[in-house]
Design a protein that fits this description.
Largest sheet: 2 strands, antiparallel
Order of helices and strands: HHEEH
Shape: rod-shaped
Radius of gyration: 62 Å
Number of strands: 2
Number of helices: 3
Distance between the termini: 128 Å
Strand content: 5-15%
Helix content: over 70%
Structural class: mainly alpha
């Protein structure tokens, strides 16, 4: 029961072993899926990074061009900012947010939408109109690049956090969960083997006890049979002795009778009168 921190605290049984095997299979499958997800997110992450670098480079050029065009328009047409602010009633460019699913991760996508016409078409009609329209087009392009860059930056940050979380999960499954399950399975296997050895030893001892009891029973039966045969033999010898004694007694009686008869006959022979004729 050592190493409680390195394995799960489960009771070693066949059911626990089956459950741990299923958990190990699920952990390995989850690790494979998360690894593939991390690879897909990393691929998308690198693609977004390249787009961000390109967009930032382009953004610097466009912003520099827009600043120069605004300076030219102010030089040609004078300060026309108050006129534009008075004519604008609502936003001409709006941002629409949508989502893109990449390996189960929802990435925000921002797109710029033009709504209606601008309220300062006549600005610069007297002078500097061409520079104002050029500055307007340049700043519209800058706004589109800003929206695109915001979308890429937001997706970049979201992917970065998701990749870190996914990698932490992959490392946790690979270096913590799977080894812990494997150690738990090893512990359960060793306990079950030890239990099987104990059960085998117990059954062996039971068989030995049964065999000893059977041998004692057979020995007791043989001893009882021997005692019974000896008793029968003794009784038979006793009966023979009794029969022999009776026979000897009867023979003695017969001899005695014969002797008595002989004695009677001899007495008769001694007392016989020669003159008596029969």
């Amino acid at each position: 029961m050592s190493g409680q921190g390195d394995r799960y605290n489960v009771f070693p049984s066949r059911m626990s072993q089956t459950q741990m095997k299923l958990r190990l299979k699920a952990a390995k499958k989850g690790h494979s899926l998360l690894k593939k997800k991390a690879d897909a997110l990393s691929l998308k992450f690198r693609a977004i990074l390249r787009q961000i670098i390109g967009t930032k480079t382009m953004m610097g050029e466009v912003m520099r061009e827009a600043a120069f065009s605004l300076a030219e328009a102010n030089f040609k047409a004078g300060d026309f900012s108050h006129s534009i602010m008075q004519n604008v009633k609502s936003a001409n460019v709006k941002v629409r947010a949508s989502k893109e699913n990449v390996a189960g991760v929802q990435l925000p996508i921002f797109t710029s939408i033009r709504d209606g016409s601008s309220g300062f078409e006549l600005t610069g009609l007297s002078r500097g109109g061409q520079e104002i329209q050029k500055s307007k087009a340049t700043w519209n392009k800058a706004i589109e690049l800003l929206v695109q860059l915001a979308s890429l930056q937001t997706s970049f940050v979201t992917l970065d956090e998701t990749i870190k979380t996914t990698n932490r999960r992959v490392n946790a499954i690979e270096h913590v969960i799977i080894p812990r399950i494997e150690r738990t399975l090893s512990y359960i296997g060793s306990e079950l083997d030890e239990r099987e050895r104990e059960e085998f030893y117990r059954l062996k001892k039971i068989q030995e006890k049964k065999k000893e009891a059977k041998d004692r029973k057979i020995a007791a039966e043989k001893l009882a049979e021997k005692i019974a045969s000896d008793k029968a033999e003794l009784e038979e010898q006793k009966e023979r002795a009794e029969n022999k004694g009776e026979a000897d007694a009867e023979g003695g009686k017969k001899k005695k009778k014969k002797k008595e008869k002989k004695e009677d006959a001899s007495m008769l022979d001694e007392g016989e009168d020669p003159d008596v004729l029969f």
